[in-house]
Design a protein that fits this description.
Blueprint: E1 17-19, E2 25-27, E3 36-41, H1 48-66, E4 69-74, H2 79-88, E5 96-97, H3 102-107, E6 112-114, E7 128-130, E8 133-137, E9 143-148, H4 158-171
Parallel strand pairs: 3-4, 4-5
Antiparallel strand pairs: 1-2, 3-8, 6-7, 8-9
C-alpha cells in the first residue's frame, strides 16, 4: 500500500468514480456544481458514529443544495453493506457510493485501519477500511477545503460547514493552506 500524500489546496484532486446504491455511477468529473462538490468519506456500516453523522447530513442536504453544493458520501464497503447502511440509517436523500478501493483512499490522503472485530453496532469491521475525510472541491476540480481523521470521533459539524459556506461564498474567500514549499518564499 502506498504512503499517504496530503492533498493541497488550489491543486487538482484525484479522479474519483464509484458505483451508487440504487444503481448508476457517480463521477467527480461529471459534477457541475455552482460552488463546490462536497466529498464525504465514511468508515462503513460497522461504524455507528457514521450512521448518526450521515443522517445529520441527509437531513441538511437541501441546505447544501441551496448553497450550490453537490454532495457524495462513500466508503470502501461492498454494495450489500452500503445498501444495509442506507436502510439501517434511514438515508433518504444522499448519493451513497461504495466500493472505494484502498488505493483510491490513499490518493485522497485517507488513513487506513485494520479490523477490531464486531463493533457496538453488531457489524464486523472489514479486514481493512478507510477512516473519515471531508473535502470541498471547486468546479474546476481543485481542492478548497479538506480534513482527514484517524478516528471516527469529532468530525466537522455540518451546521458549521453551512455557516462557513455562507461566509466563503459571500466573500469569495480563497482556499488557504496553499503554500507547497515555504522555504522558497
Amino acid at each position: 500500500m502506498s504512503a499517504i500524500t496530503p492533498l493541497m489546496p488550489r491543486q487538482k484532486v484525484p479522479a474519483l468514480s464509484v458505483p451508487l446504491v440504487g444503481g448508476g455511477t457517480w463521477s467527480l468529473a461529471d459534477q457541475t456544481p455552482e460552488n463546490f462538490t462536497m466529498v464525504v468519506f465514511y468508515r462503513g456500516l460497522h461504524c455507528p458514529i457514521c450512521g448518526k453523522y450521515l443522517k445529520d447530513l441527509d437531513d441538511k442536504l437541501a441546505d447544501f443544495a441551496k448553497r450550490g453544493v453537490n454532495v457524495i458520501v462513500l466508503s470502501s464497503d461492498t454494495q450489500d453493506r452500503a445498501e444495509t447502511a442506507r436502510e439501517k440509517w434511514a438515508l433518504e436523500n444522499l448519493d451513497l457510493g461504495y466500493g472505494l478501493s484502498l488505493e483510491q483512499a490513499r490518493e485522497w490522503g485517507l488513513y487506513i485501519s485494520s479490523s477490531n472485530g464486531v463493533t457496538s453496532s453488531g457489524f464486523e469491521e472489514p479486514a481493512l477500511f478507510s477512516e473519515p475525510g471531508l473535502f470541498l472541491v471547486r468546479p474546476d476540480g481543485t481542492l478548497y477545503f479538506g480534513t482527514v481523521q484517524t478516528m471516527p470521533f469529532a468530525r466537522p459539524a455540518f451546521a458549521e460547514i453551512l455557516g462557513a459556506l455562507d461566509f466563503v461564498i459571500a466573500k469569495n474567500y480563497p482556499a488557504r493552506g496553499e503554500v507547497i514549499d515555504h522555504t522558497n518564499i
